[in-house]
Design goal:
globular, 2% strand, two-stranded antiparallel ribbon, binds protoporphyrin IX containing FE, 242 residues, mainly alpha
Amino acid sequence: MPLPRAVRDVVQTAAGRRHRADPVTPVTGGPGGNAQLTAWTGLLFLGLIAAELVTLLDVSGWMSWHVVLGVLLVPVALLKTGSTGWRIARYYTGNRPYRAAGPPPMILRVLGPLVILSTLGVLGSGLALIAVGQGTSERTWLTVLGQQVSAVTLHQVLFIAFGVLTGLHLLARIVPAIQLTTGRTHDEAGTGAPGKGPRALILVMTLAAAAVAAALILPTAHGWQQGAHHAERGRQSGHAGR
Ligand code: HEM
């Protein structure tokens, strides 16, 4: 039985066999340049999130790294939101080159905003935990089926949503990202799109801002004695319950 058209479009895009013909305009590169910035930002995000996932092997032991990598991810996620949001805004406001480029396959068009919301949700909740401190973050809001729910739980639930949604996005977009950044796309949008210098500068400035933010926030993470405090809190509330 043939695959539904919407699924076929995503499979061909994910396999790198189907790519939007992005027009290239002078100076910034237009849609072709935008696709470049989005792809490079995506790969940068992938590198940082891979390192962040490693810290989950021992969050309490690697809390400082978990916080530093989390903070480094924020400006990169905001740049990704900005470059894709710019394409969406230009498309819906009728900009000719972006209209000519057209929208992504329907399933990715629906998935995109969910990826943005879950990414900003998990990163934003992480920053909020640092801002309010360990005590408040671990304070139980309510108990659901015997499970204590706190701000930390919310961060964990948002991480699961992020993992599923961004994982699907990555499956569909990793091959196009490599094709776009290595110039192996089917049209003139490859790495030849004008505006390479400004795009590189945007990425470097985003990373510099991320490094400054991480240096400023790191001292607040030192207070998090995750493991011992958590266990102690669990013990206290367990005794109280009995
Ligand atoms: C995990 C690594 C990621 C990679 C390798 C990646 C790669 C890509 C690529 C290649 C595109 C298409 C660019 C174009 O042709 O214009 C794209 C589109 C998009 N990306 Fe990502 N991305 C990643 C993570 C993210 C994250 C974390 C967000 C949210 C902050 C995001 C949001 C979007 C959106 C909204 C679109 C437009 C919808 C679409 O065309 O799929 N991506 N991404």
